[in-house]
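TL;DR need structure tokens for one chain.
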Amino acid sequence: MDLRRALAPGWRAWRAYAASVAAFQSAILLSLSYLALVGPVWLLSRAVRRSFLPYRSASSTWVTRASRAIDPRRLY
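>> reply
TL;DR here they are.
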């Protein structure tokens, strides 16, 4: 039991170091995977001069509805 108590501060420091390394490593891996996916798609869209995202129509899709009177007693 005495050995466990002696090694506990070192183990806590190692876990903190490992967590910071893991956070950095995951950020790098996610960035690289994003670039590996988005980069070629962007280059392809620039090469064919076309956007792969659907265009929105010029007209609005907003639906106008008749206003209803609000009963304050039914709010709560």
